[in-house]
Design a protein that fits this description.
Strand content: 15-25%
Distance between the termini: 50 Å
Number of helices: 15
Structural class: alpha/beta
Bound molecules: zinc ion
Largest sheet: 9 strands, mixed
């Protein structure tokens, strides 16, 4: 009798989802869906996308807002609860450290296994592995033998072996940064690229500056047939960025698996003690030191302050890019400006395409379709604005209204939701 009553109740109701997102302007670059829809979430996944009325235990009113796949950051150095919180407020639902990476992939994932606010993942990093093998005294980046001593053949063998171990532990990719390891010979870099080629793993490289730097990376990839991803092309290319984008297009046209990325700011940041700063500025004309900003005080450096802060160590802001070059890199020349759909595609679907051969689970991210992971960013197109500055980097943007990770809200009504950790690891199959 009781069972019959329950059945009747279920027959009389429409499905109830964990959560529904109602009336939003859904923009999905993969399917090109660009229309008002209701979305129902169930068990951390998208269960329905429909024009029909749906009900859920919880409702997000998205009328007047854009509903997009959660943003995916392929170049996220901050990998702490604090930085995951900042990313979530920016609409980022997956943050991956693929350039520096780590030297111990298992330990890196284990440290986060209790869950984080957003999804996370890491590369096995040549810089970090080299620091370990060469016993470098630096903490964040190499400052001694990891940067400046050529490795012996035995050490090169050990570096390659540890990179293979990192891949067997599920690293998302291989990371490298040639200006941070200037003593690494072509032979050492070839060993690295051979591992990438054998395992068909993209190698994410911070190249040496300019056209020559890109030529070097392309020739390493060419010689070994490794998939290559050139990180932050705008800060590596500066005024050469347009011609370097052409070089990458040409390599792709010839069938090479080469991709790139850019960040939409005209300054970068790195460790003042790292080789990439010291090798550039130690012997540069004094007036070039004004390109450097010490973020704690906002002062531009001169020879005296540069030497003083170089002894102390710490992050330094590097003002070498221009707004013009940023615009060229972000639009990638094909359009004079970027449509919203295209911008969303570059921040969601395209990052998954770079990674999905090695990490098939990425095919469930970066898109709004039934069965996909419920990583969703909902924003007010006309109001989105960043507020942070180099002096105040922790100011959150406005206009990012709701951010959902695996079906759970981490940002609601523009504010961080506290005490939630729905983020899961992004990791290659082992
Ligand atoms: Zn870099």
């Amino acid at each position: 009798m009781i069972i019959g009553l329950l059945l009747l109740l279920q027959l009389g109701t429409r499905p109830v989802y964990d959560r529904v997102i109602l009336g939003g302007h859904v923009m999905d670059p993969a399917s090109k869906l660009d229309a008002v829809r209701n979305i129902g979430l169930l068990g951390g996944r998208i269960a329905v996308i429909t024009t029909h009325a749906i009900r859920g235990r919880d409702t997000v009113d998205a009328r007047g807002l854009v509903v997009a796949p959660g943003f995916i950051d392929l170049h996220a150095h901050g990998q702490t609860p604090e930085t995951y919180r900042f990313y979530s407020l920016d609409g980022v639902t997956t943050a991956l450290e693929l350039e520096l990476g780590t030297s111990d992939v298992d330990a890196w994932y284990r440290e986060r296994s209790a869950g984080e606010r957003i999804n996370y993942g890491v590369s096995i990093g040549h810089i970090k592995v080299r620091m370990a093998v060469m016993h470098d005294s630096g903490t964040w980046m190499p400052v001694s033998d990891g940067a400046y001593r050529a490795a012996t053949p035995a050490e090169i063998g050990e570096i390659a072996k540890r990179i293979e171990i990192g891949l067997s532990e599920g690293a998302v990719s291989i990371g490298a940064g040639f200006p941070y390891t200037p003593a690494a010979t072509r032979g050492e870099l070839l060993a690295l690229f051979r591992v990438a080629a054998r395992s068909k793993t993209p190698i994410h490289v911070h190249i040496r500056p300019g056209v020559a730097g890109l030529k070097e990376a392309l020739s390493l990839a060419d010689e070994t047939n490794a998939p290559l991803h050139v990180v932050h092309i705008n800060s590596a290319g500066l005024a050469d960025t347009p011609v370097m984008l052409d070089m990458i297009s040409d390599a792709r046209a010839r069938g090479h698996d080469v991709t790139t990325e850019a960040y939409p700011y005209d300054a970068g940041m790195t460790e003042i003690q790292s080789a990439t700063i010291q090798d550039t500025y130690r012997s540069a004309p004094d007036e070039r030191l004004a390109e450097l900003e010490w973020p704690r005080t906002g002062e531009r450096l001169n020879r005296e302050s540069y030497d003083r802060y170089s002894r102390i160590g710490g992050p330094v802001v590097v003002h070498t890019n221009t707004e013009e070059m940023v615009a060229v890199a972000i639009a990638n020349r094909e359009a004079h400006s970027l449509s919203l759909m295209e911008a969303i595609r570059k921040m969601t679907f395209m990052p998954t395409q770079r990674l999905d051969a090695r990490v098939p689970a990425m095919r469930q991210k970066g898109r709004l379709r039934v069965g996909a992971d419920a990583d969703i960013t909902i924003f007010a197109e006309s109001r989105v604005l960043d507020r942070s500055t180099y002096r105040e980097p922790s100011l959150s943007p406005v206009g990012i209204q709701h951010v959902i990770v695996n079906g759970v809200s981490v940002v609601a009504n523009g504010r961080a939701v506290e005490g939630v950790a729905p983020g899961k690891e992004v990791r290659a199959p082992r």
